[in-house]
Amino acid sequence: MKKTTWPNRDELTSYTTIVLLTCLALIAFLGVADVLISNIVTPFFM
Questions:
Q1: Taking Cα atoms as reference points, which of 10, 34, 14 lies closest to residue 22?
Q2: pLDDT, tens only, 13-45
Q3: What pLDDT does 46 receive?
Q4: Transmembrane residues, as ranges (predicted)?
Q5: Exposure string for 4-36, b = 16+ CB within 10 A, e = fewer
Q6: Computed from CA positions of residues 30, 31, 35, 36, in that sequence, does the dihedral angle turn out positive or negative?
Q7: Cα–Cα distance between 22 and 13 in angstroms, integer?
Q8: pTM summary value
Q9: Which of the residues 2, 21, 22, 37 has the least number of beta carbons within 10 Å of its own beta carbon?
């Protein structure tokens, strides 16, 4: 088996930032899509 190398503090901070920003972008996209689809579909059921 290969020896495991752990990321240093700078790499860990960078990776964590990328993951958090990606999650926030996905949350924002899904939120906007949900509102738009809801506004489009709701009049058909009124």
A1: 14
A2: 999 999 999 999 999 999 999 999 999 999 999
A3: 85
A4: 12-37
A5: eeeeeeeeeeeeeeeeeeeeeeeeeeeeeeeee
A6: negative
A7: 14
A8: 0.75
A9: 2
Whole-angstrom Cα distance, residue 25 to residue 13? 18
Please give the structure tokens belonging to residue 13. 């901070």
Name the one residue in this structure whose structure tokens are 């993951």. 19
Spell out the residues 6+ positions from residue 25 whose beta carbon is closer than 8 angstroms to its own.
Answer: none
Amino acid found at 37? I
Place of tokens 């689809």: 37
Amino acid in the structure at residue 10: D
Domain ranges of the chain: 15-40
What's the pLDDT band for 1 if we cut at 50, 70, 90? confident
